[in-house]
């Protein structure tokens, strides 16, 4: 039935919008916001380059609905009336990212307890459950009041409206990776006893209310997507069975695209890494068949496919043309998500679509601060964490380079990336504090 589908096939979404092909760029935080957390010319440069690179749809890095709880000091935040300058910068960004008939969807988020201490030492979260990670980078969160939760729903709807009005062609709610909505979904993090905690119905209430409020605000013909974990991979956390049920509820809301990912800062499975916690005994292992797979959440997507009819996207590990087309032809997914390869080769979608390339770059396979026990799967927590942040910094610095109009630098060292990324973040955080 899906034999004729491949990465070049257009896709019409439930709301009526059409993506010109099946490759989407996964959301990647850019750190290009200015000290007032507005979009900049750097965003326009970066997204024009990606739009010219051939993907059917680009997801922006997470844009924050509350500047007190950002994922990073250089995020864009839309959390109140926008100045003329802020609106102009967003319009400029949207115009650049939609050239070449490309869809540009804004990912909107609230970082919850994963807000770094450099942004806020006491961020808001469902409960006062701190992250169990080494390094003291995150403060202990404060449990939100019912009024604060209602306020978050309104903020998501507001940011979505600003996205639509400034020329973005869709939005995605970040419901994955251990940020606020994902924290509400997790019984390990969310220990509330009111209507926002306890049963899965209660834990999913925030996500569903956010989706409903956004639909009411943006209308029936504007694409709405959610990024959801296939599981948190943490014992006692949001399970795969939970994910299947939540996906079915989102399907009933008329969602346009569900993107499937997995993991949190404690369990960074989204980028293929494992346990970073102080409690390794709580880490859940992945199925062997999943580890062997190129796209590591595909097995989980199959179970979700069986429960829903809405379009599905998987991001994480896709690197070969054959693997992408096989996943589409199997009918499990409708859109292939690619993230890290586009940090190094922004035009790789066009190369895959024309057949000029059979695979994407896979730099993550070789990026490490040292061999053997010093690699990313080291049993030493600190080494593992340095590898994790070093890799992340390496990809982030490539985005900053493109934002400055430079080419990516594949020869960049991981250790220097670790150091330079930390320096850059400290500088951005200091600029934020001065405001
Ligand atoms: C530098 C970097 C920044 C990221 N930022 C975000 C983000 O803002 N929002 C999000 O949902 N995922 C984010 N991710 C995760 C990616 O969207 C994607 O799920 C992950 O990289 C796996 O896909 P890949 O194997 O194609 O890279 C980020 C990943 C990287 C490497």
Would you give an account of this structure?
- By secondary structure, this protein is of the alpha/beta class.
- It has a single domain (11-373), classed as Aldolase class I (TIM Barrel).
- Helices cover 37% and strands 11% of the residues.
- It has helices spanning 41-52, 84-97, 146-165, 180-185, 200-203, 205-218, 240-252, 288-292, 298-305, 321-329, 341-344, 348-354, 381-403, 414-434, and strands spanning 11-12, 18-19, 23-25, 57-59, 63-64, 103-109, 124-125, 142-143, 170-175, 224-229, 257-261, 312-315, 335-338.
- The strands form 3 sheets. An 8-stranded parallel barrel has the order 3-4-6-9-10-11-12-13, surrounded by 6 helices.
Query: If classified by CATH, what would the architecture be?
Result: Alpha-Beta Barrel
What top-tier CATH class fits best? Alpha Beta
Label the structural class.
alpha/beta
The percent range for strand residues is 5-15%
Strand order of the largest sheet: 3-4-6-9-10-11-12-13
Q: Gap between N and C termini, in Å? A: 57 Å
Q: Which fold name is given in CATH as the topology?
A: TIM Barrel
Quick rundown:
It holds the Pfam family Oxidored_FMN. The protein is of the alpha/beta class and 435 residues long.
What attributes characterize this protein structure?
435 residues; alpha/beta; TIM Barrel; two-stranded antiparallel sheet; 14 helices; 37% helix; binds flavin mononucleotide
